[in-house]
Here is the input.
Amino acid sequence: MSATNRILPGSTIGILGGGQLGRMLALQGRAMGYRFVTLDPTPDAPCGQVADEQLVAPYDSVEEARKLATQSDVITYEFENVDADVAALLERESYVPQGSKLLFTTQHRLREKRAIEAADVKVAPYREIPTAEALREASAAFGFPCVLKTATGGYDGKGQWVLRSDSEIDEAFATLSKAGTELVLEQFIHFEREISVIAARNPDGDIRTFPVSENVHVNNILHLSIVPARITQDIAQEAERMAAQIAKQLEVVGLVAVEMFVTPDGQLYVNELAPRPHNSGHYTMEACHTSQFEQHLRAICNLPLASTALLTSVVMVNVLGQHVEPLLAMLAAEEAAGEQQPRVVPKLHLYGKQESKHNRKMGHINLLAESVEEALDWVDAAGIWQTEGIR
Ligand code: AMP
Here is the structure.
């Protein structure tokens, strides 16, 4: 291990974006002895509350980004839609070990798919769709259903259309074309499960992967992460190998979250990448020797990567606006009952967001248990998520 560009405790880490991912990075990093400054347009942002300083400015403010650069020994980001001018400025005027190449790749579905394929990893069959005619041809080739997506700007299921028949082609094309970006059609993968693997790589090229998380979405928002995932050892190993391969071939520095589909016959297809800590990695906070946040900081600071071993079975449940009150009431009641050694140990994380809205991510809860079944029973019994049976 070389000591080049090793960023030692006492240094200041700049975070572009002040949301919950930045907050959890800063909370972890402070324990490791780092200082933090963050840039976010909302005063008192989740990360601003725990950083040494928050610059309040729009994400694309070149002037404020320059200020962030001046104050920081190293810069990272907590979302991928970083403005291209800002990314270029930061690279020029500061130290951004993650670089802007991976950002550029993952900001665009077509570029991302090509990069994954170039790394010799499988994605769902896809085609670029420049015209409604091309959509007609490609959907005939893939069969229905198939999924039309915008190349940029989509998240949590936005910018997507599941095409069920020929009759939807013109409307789907016209609607998604309004986004003003390229379109891509994907074959529909009849998956058995969705999983993700988070891989970390440091500038020296060391790579570690976290245990596979099985992810359940509700209304296109992550609802549960289940670890260990209910898949065979072979599939888990292959998923971790694929994530490591992507980290290596794309020369990732920091984290890359790799979302995949598992088919009933055990095939794996990568769906998408995120070049940052990921919601499906929040389980690592109490369930692994090292959290994804610590590993990310280790990677960008070029420290040795640490053990990702799993300490316990765990289910992570997202806490959206509508879940906060009933969950707090339930936890208070559980605590009042005073069980010394509960079978399921709940660890609640709240992000300090001022305004609680329906479907807004306000926090998450990690349920540590002997088995994932016990943790899932806890979720069902809570009756808070109205999604019993989704497991
Ligand atoms: P994405 O925005 O690409 O992460 O897609 C959101 C969700 O839509 C995924 O988590 C899947 O549940 C579903 N989905 C996306 N693409 C496909 C596909 N090609 N086949 C089946 N389901 C998909």
Notes: Residues 193-382 form a domain with the D-amino Acid Aminotransferase; Chain A, domain 1 fold (CATH 3.30.470.20). Residues 124, 147, 154, 157, 160, 186, 188-189, 194, 217, 220, 271-272 surround adenosine monophosphate (CB under 6 Å). The chain has a mean pLDDT of 95. The radius of gyration is 21 Å.
